[in-house]
Amino acid sequence: MSNFALLRKNQQIELTSGRTATVVGKLGEGGQGIVYRVIFDDTGEEKALKWYFRDNLNNARKFYNNLEENIKVGAPSAAFVWPEELTNWDDNESFGYTMKIFPQGYENFS
Questions:
Q1: pLDDT tens digits, residue range 67-107?
Q2: pLDDT in tens, 4-45
Q3: 46-52 and 12-14 as β-strands: parallel, antiparallel, unpaired?
Q4: What are 61-65's contacts with CB under 8 Å, separation 24+?
């Protein structure tokens, strides 16, 4: 994971929309990355932030562009927890997206 930076509590993350979110804590971790709890600085709304292990992606830039397109198109139904806002690439070329925090009763699609 040489091209991956862990996020710190209270670290601000810049989103492509111009908004910022502050890391509150870690929600979980998997093979693709870490999911953090964040708070939008402008509204105080809590969200999840999926932050990728860039080295585990075959083509990180293509993956990022695909996420951007998925956000534009939107979720196929309200039942999906879907990417909402994309982050800017950080100095370590890591990135992520915000989404709703999984409500109880949700299952991993895979």
A1: 999 999 999 998 888 999 999 987 777 899 999 997 666 66
A2: 578 999 999 999 999 999 999 999 998 889 999 999 999 999
A3: unpaired
A4: 64/89, 64/95
Say if residues 92 and 4 touch (Cβ distance below 8 Å): yes
| Pair of tokens at residue 110 | 């895979």
| Residue 40 to residues 4, 34, 36, 71, 100, Cα–Cα distance (Å) | 23, 18, 13, 18, 12
Contact between 50 and 38 (Cβ < 8 Å): no
Amino acid identity of 95?
Answer: F
Angle at 24 between CA 21 and CA 30, to 5 degrees: 95
Q: Within 13 Å of residue 75, how many CA atoms lie on the same side as its CB?
A: 11
CA 60 and chain centroid, separation: 14
Q: Is the pTM of this model over 0.70?
A: yes
- For the CA atoms of the chain, what is the radius of gyration? 13
